Amino acid sequence: MRQAYNLHCYIDDSTLIENAGNYVAQIIQKRWTPSPVLVLCGPGGNGGEGFVVAKRLAKSGWPVRVAVLIARESTVAHLTELWDGPVEALTPAALKDAVLVIDAIFGTGLNRPLGGQAALTLACAAERKMTIIAVDVPSGMYSDTGASEGAVPCSLTVACFHKKPGHLLQPGRSLCGELLVDSSETSVTQSAQFIPDTFENGPTLWVDRLPMLQTVGNKYTRGHALIWGGWPATGAARMAAMGASRIGAGLTTIAVPEVALQVYAAALTSVMVSPVARPEDFGRLLADARYTGLIIGPGAGVGPETRAYVLAILRTGRATVLDADALSCFKDDPLTLFNAIVGPCVLTPHEGEFKRLFEGLLDMKGDKLTRARAAAHTSGCTIVLKGSDTVIAAPDGDAIINANAPPTLATAGAGDVLAGIVVGLLAQGMAPFYAAAAAVWLHGAAASSYGLGLIAEDLPGLLPKELQKLQKIWNHNY
Ligand SMILES: NC(=O)C1=CN([C@@H]2O[C@H](COP(=O)(O)OP(=O)(O)OC[C@H]3O[C@@H](n4cnc5c(N)ncnc54)[C@H](OP(=O)(O)O)[C@@H]3O)[C@@H](O)[C@H]2O)[C@@H](O)CC1
Ligand SMILES: Nc1ncnc2c1ncn2[C@@H]1O[C@H](COP(=O)(O)OP(=O)(O)O)[C@@H](O)[C@H]1O
Ligand SMILES: [K+]
């Protein structure tokens, strides 16, 4: 885990500013032919990088103008030495004939909403649809949360040293436009000095923990996923079952109310069904320790019956996923749920379900990363707070931000398949935080491989190809 991306660090070194500015200038020279450039510089390190960009481009013969937010004397002293050419005031008038606008007003130092001439000038550039290139982050976007107070959409953002959470979390991710990261040697060396707790999701984080097939083994050694199947919304549990099976659970069973037996049985082949006429029947099923991953929620319905089944599942202490209705039915009494959790557990709420469960317990105004972390701490579970920027948070404070999910996943049932993938990995013995991260990433990769027209039923069938790619990485590394 520790060799993975570090999204939090701060380096106080003017050499780094010089390097980062040079890197941004190089990118601009590679991507564009010489054209009139306006560099907007703020009073701190970000403005310093802007001066370096200006110097480098001017040296290469580009027509460059520099506009500063405040008098140059007020800028951090050593940074003013980076640019000895003329400067003008940073106002919308400075935009005049510019073709490229370099936004080096504020970076990680942003500590209040963008206002005054900085806000006016950027808004004006955006309104004129000028090409805006952000140094480190779009000014007005908070680098640690992705929240925006005045940032405008950029064509390109060049992150200095490493990605920050704001590059991955919405709306920051969308405001950045294309994102490039300075991967120069200095940058990588500096980033490695920090002990991170926030990561960008990717196979590096968990590929070594993926369950791999053993030559000697049988279906039981690959784990058995048990899904509570609701009625009358039977599709949700079936999609979860396909997710669990395709990710490698050796067996998948759906426990179904007797009334729904025919519906489930007629629609399933390799996935088994087990009828539950009375609560005792479910208890008997759960007593079988060969069920190594349990899930309830997709299509379960909100009511006392689902609550009772959730609590019965949790009493086993075995690895569990609680999704959808299993979360919503504890809206008025979340502590009963949390107190019942004694084993490894993953909660997979979307924002609506998250609010229902945690509203009375957490500050809902916080950013997504903070809220997911707090929820993991409060519940003692791994939290998968879903969306286009899904955050996976562990009770110990580690968090992973996912950025590979395409918008085609905004389709009914996609979450059910995801929950099934998580339980399929849990059933095979993967630890909850890593199972959740791997599932979210594979879900995004599978959806991306399909393109437009995706429906949730497509997702399980797309997993094998993604698994095979991971197997190659695994074989190469281990
Ligand atoms: N320094 C280094 O070693 C490195 C620097 N790096 C580069 O510099 C960036 C960080 O530099 P930085 O810390 O100087 O902050 P920066 O974002 O330029 O802001 C300057 C000052 O502006 C002010 N201010 C804030 N919000 C405001 C607002 N809305 N409206 C008006 N004023 C506002 C606030 O000061 P205040 O007014 O609160 O005293 C703040 O301190 C980083 O993103 C990267 O690009 C990195 O590459 C790593 C190495
Ligand atoms: N705009 C989007 N971009 C990327 N992923 C998305 C987007 N909208 C939703 N998703 C993902 O799709 C899934 C939807 O899950 P959920 O809201 O529970 O839907 P359902 O209950 O219909 O299955 C989640 O994994 C979520 O992260
Ligand atoms: K900036």
UniProtKB/TrEMBL annotation:
A Pfam family annotated for this UniProt entry: YjeF_N
Regions that span the bilayer: none
Binding sites annotated in the UniProt record for AMP: 386-390, 415
Enzyme Commission number(s): 4.2.1.136
Alphabetized UniProt keyword annotations: ATP-binding, Isomerase, Lyase, Metal-binding, Multifunctional enzyme, NAD, NADP, Nucleotide-binding, Potassium
Enzyme class per UniProt: lyase
Domain YjeF C-terminal: residue ranges: 202-470
Keyword check for NADP: yes
Catalysed conversion reaction: (6S)-NADHX + ADP = AMP + phosphate + NADH + H(+); (6S)-NADPHX + ADP = AMP + phosphate + NADPH + H(+); (6R)-NADPHX = (6S)-NADPHX; (6R)-NADHX = (6S)-NADHX
Cofactor note: Binds 1 potassium ion per subunit.
Domain YjeF N-terminal: 1-192
Cofactor: K(+); Mg(2+)
Binding site for (6S)-NADPHX: 236, 299, 350, 416
Recorded family membership: In the C-terminal section; belongs to the NnrD/CARKD family.
PANTHER family assigned: ATP-DEPENDENT (S)-NAD(P)H-HYDRATE DEHYDRATASE, ATP-DEPENDENT (S)-NAD(P)H-HYDRATE DEHYDRATASE FAMILY MEMBER
Function: Bifunctional enzyme that catalyzes the epimerization of the S- and R-forms of NAD(P)HX and the dehydration of the S-form of NAD(P)HX at the expense of ADP, which is converted to AMP. This allows the repair of both epimers of NAD(P)HX, a damaged form of NAD(P)H that is a result of enzymatic or heat-dependent hydration. Catalyzes the dehydration of the S-form of NAD(P)HX at the expense of ADP, which is converted to AMP. Together with NAD(P)HX epimerase, which catalyzes the epimerization of the S- and R-forms, the enzyme allows the repair of both epimers of NAD(P)HX, a damaged form of NAD(P)H that is a result of enzymatic or heat-dependent hydration.
Subunit structure: Homotetramer.
Protein name per Swiss-Prot or TrEMBL: ADP-dependent (S)-NAD(P)H-hydrate dehydratase
Annotated organism of origin: Comamonas avium
Lineage start: Bacteria, Pseudomonadati, Pseudomonadota, Betaproteobacteria, Burkholderiales
